[in-house]
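ok trying again, last paste got cut off:
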Amino acid sequence: MAGVGGTYIFGIYSREIKSSLGYDQSTLNLLGFFKDLGANIGVLSGLIAEVTPTWFLLFIGSAMNFSGFFMIWLAVTGKIARPKVWQMCIYICLGANSQNFANTGVLVTCVTNFPENRGVLLGLLKGFSGLSGAIMTQIYLALYGNDPKSLILLVAWLPAAICLLFAYTIRVIKSIRQQNELKMLYKFLYISIALALFLMAITIAQKLVHFSQPANVASGAIVLCFLLLVPLSIAVKKELALWMQKELPASPMQITVQEPPKLDHKTDMQLKETPSCFGDICNKPTRGEDYTILQALVNLDMIILFISTMCGIGSSLTAVDNLGQIGESLGYPTKTVETFVSLVSIWNYLGRIFAGLVSEKLITKYKRPRPLMMTVVLFLSCIGYLLIAFPVPGSVYIASVIIGFSFGAQFPLLNAIISELFGLKHYATLFNVGQLASPLGSYILIVKVAGLLYDREALKGLKMKKMNRDSVKELTCIGPRCFRLSFVILACVSFFGAVVSIVLVMRTRDFYRGDIYKKFREEEKVVDEVEIDEGGGNTRENEG
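nice, full thing came through this time. structure:
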């Protein structure tokens, strides 16, 4: 998950694409939309995950990532003829879509293995995904220095290599739940927090002090140590402890075999009747049970969640994708823009961790609906957008923190809500369906709002200088007016999404007042009661 950040640092290398290929802001935002489209259309990966093992998903994602971003690198460096815009859209959509294969493989596998701690787990996994932008920035500086073109090459090969390296280690494991399961997850959480704090400190230091290349290499080495060595040592230590437990002699155990209740002829006939497709849609299960894909798609809860996600994540993606141009329009140098992107990535992580932990606490301790957290996050994001619409000295730093936090918090909330309301049977497909809302929202807001309004203000600036579009290669707007109206609109859209999410809070409050994890504990209880005599491998029946 720490290697899927190629789409999150688009704000750094987008300026290189724009200048190298001579695009205006509308064209660049069109590329940004196709990036978001690829990053969020994961239905294909979900459907493939229903019938194939996880390693196959990761292999596909690795090939797609390298193919898409490597072609972009070839185009930007001039090693191939300048591609047409539609070709660039395909390349970036292909590369971005690869992260869905990694997300689906990792998230679905882990939620299946740890269903009762899904809030903490999703927050942790999506947190590393949020940190991936800052992680890749440090690795890029260590390997290539300050060369945005080489950053595109890094985005091409590094995530692909990670997927291939860990393809066979991510799998569903059928085992009895460990009592200290949550404690182990918290250990990984503490490591990720330490990594986030280090990344924030090094980002601020790089802004204040000039780092030599050896210093960049040292910071990149520390990041890799946090990512690989420390978590690996915890996992190895735990596996050794479990292995030693298995070596201890076990006392003979019994199983109890109960005959299933006999069904009368009428009931048996009812079970054999298979409802039609549309009849099955009408006979929806209760919240928390396993929905079919069609049942979930036409459910009012899913529609409300879809609208809220379209407004919230669509607005956040618009802000994140335009950070490079926002910094440029307000007169910030490239190094400061990289600081904005890193701040968004770090607080993206903190938002995901916070949303996962706090929303889980709201459910287990206070019996509050998880969508309530979504409402709060969307209201908070409005403040960040207004700070960019009406900038003051230092406001973009604060806005980067708020936007990054609210952007990150929405993903684990969306994934957890879908798994809780519609079950885990088709979770691989349904959580990808839920994410389809974000590219729809981002297309409207990035291409049809932010891009067009930016170009309109840039053309006004040229007109004041008595110039036209043909007289400049790159259409650039300078001044706070460039994004003012766009971000006022984003604030209004996010406010509307927050109001819509309140409806879901009211609809699900009775469901969250109950014990939503009861059925998983009952399933584990059945597994615990059926134990095999390890000495002889035989079972004895206790008839009583």
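cool. The CA atoms of residues 39 and 96 lie 5 Å apart. Residues 263-279, 530-544 have pLDDT under 50 and may be disordered.
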